[in-house]
Amino acid sequence: MTSKKPASKNEVTQRVQVLRDELELHNHFYYVLDDPRIPDADYDRLFRELQELEAANPELITPESPTQRVGGAPLPQFTSVRHATPMLSLNNCFSEQELEDFHRRIRDALGIDAIEYVAEPKLDGLAVSLVYESGKLVRAATRGDGSEGEDITANIRTLRSIPLKLRGMDWPHSLDVRGEVYMPKAGFARMNEEAAEKGEKVFVNPRNAAAGSLRQLDPRITANRPLQFYAYATGLLDAKSRPDTHWELLSKLREWGFPVCDLDERVEGLQGCLSYYAKLEKMRAKLPFEIDGVVYKLDRLAWRDEVGFVARAPRWAIAHKYPAEEVSTRLLDVEFQVGRTGTLTPVARLQPVFVGGVTVSNATLHNMDEINRLGVRIGDTVVVRRAGDVIPEVLKVVAEQRPKDARTIHLPETCPVCASPVVQAENEVAARCSAGLTCRAQLHGALMHFVSRRAMDIEGLGDKLLAQLIDQGLVRSPADIYQLTAEQLAQLERMAEKSADNVIAAIEHSKQTSLERFLYALGIRDVGETTARDLARHFRQLDAIVDAAQADLHSVHAEKDKDRCPTLREVPDVGPIVAAHIAQFFTEPQNLAVIAELRQAGVHWPEVAMVKSDGPLAGKTLVLTGSLSGMSRDQAQARIEAAGGKVTSSVSKKTDYVVAGESPGSKLAKAEKLGVTVLDEAGLMELLEHS
Ligand code: IVH
Known about the structure:
The protein is 37% helix and 19% strand. The protein has 24 helices and 24 strands. Strand 4 and strand 5 (136-142) form a beta hairpin.
């Protein structure tokens, strides 16, 4: 090391401060201004010097030190945080007409004709709130339901474009910066390539990748993901710090050290918005990040107050969305994939084509009905669409371009994986392999589901490993997982002893679970997480469900659907078909044997408590106003009560939430006056489902 070793404690403290300031300055040049001023090697040298000084003097380490950006120890779980000002969503518009309506509403509300907006790209990432106290980053949170999100401070600290300390001078004592964390297209492609090489899971798009990277309990993983940030708003500002316009606010945010998108522009009226929309649409494919539209925001902040809000979105801003991207390419072949319930899904193998920011070489064709409806043949030129995070779809055939040798697509008569007969039940579009868990594909799918994060959550038992276990005959059912030994695992390919021990520990750990997770993990047809939870809450014990299934069995064969499975159907939202699938599952001797083996092996859960005291709305008071579209008032009240909440008729300071449906009454105004959180129907559903 060339630098002179500082002698006194005082000198060390000073040197540490100098290094930190310098490193953060270069972070700012590099990550925010995209304008590096020193060679990487020089930066690394300064960084190492700081690391060494901190290692020798650990009492000097602070959370704001640039060395802390590599990520600290993993968290046991995310904790939830309440946003001081709710994080709103945006209303969307899809046409010029709808945008015109938006603009007219604003002009009418203000009684002013000349209106300026700030137009910004609508980044396809994840909204976050960054709270600074006395200029230091103290908390970062996801949007969550808008009122409450998850604390992701440890992860956010690893993003080098986010200042740990504010720059400049005139920032308010307390500042809540809002913006989007996103993954640039290039970083996304690189990350997926690396993952594919290692045989790991690839992300479908940059947005999912960004979300997945932020929701890591281990910040060191986040630190290695190519995440970026753009600031575009703040929470409430005190009168002294609040500029007159959004445009000035953006420039303040820049001064304080935040990256703000260079494409943001101040535009005049409707025409200005439309030109901006057209301009960005042309640039869209070449932009370094994904956008799904543009956002227009009323520029003058005082006018925003006059225009106000509806439910969870401001009236003074709107997102103008781009249509999903469509391109044409050739259908090279169709393969049938076998899912965990045996369903055969036709998958189109396409001539690779770049659409919506990713290269697409596969698209779903859903089922044979869809193939017939499209009239598609192998060799055809087809139009493919990719919208947001959905799997690409084949939209239509370009009939004029059909080659002479185009081939008709047939449903195979036997399973492409195990060669058992393929069956198609009456009234069902899906064709299935009839073999159940003796079909390798179904077993693999069922095991993948069983070990997945929201089911038994067995980390380390991935796709490849399960495939090997099946091929070696070590696992023939989920119960066999609990009979595995570290020695057996260690023999498998790419399995060091250490990771074998880790997998065994994860298996052991998964034995303590909850009834709803266990039910979900079983992979019963039509039983997703919500139904699993409803079943667990209703019956509270597995044996009660099995008893109900057996009592209902005789009625499965009843003639009328409505007479089917009377006991299982007491569970909210369980209809005749779902109930029949549940009854079938729990009366199948093989399934009962697997369940018995699992319990024998030590899989257990606490008895489910009565819903009232631990429901997601326990202790909360809600008021309903306006009409809801998905349920009646009575149904809404019943669901809230089942979740432990209470519904009252008038709004007071004690009210936790006001749920505003269509044409809400004066209760909404009162809620806004009292600062009570207002939810729309979707917000209520989120709360009900959030436990
Ligand atoms: S402003 C009150 N600006 O869109 C306005 N949001 O649908 C709050 N988004 O949750 C949001 N780019 O994740 C704003 N330039 C932008 C945005 C943007 C993307 C996302 C954000 C938000 C969602 C609302």
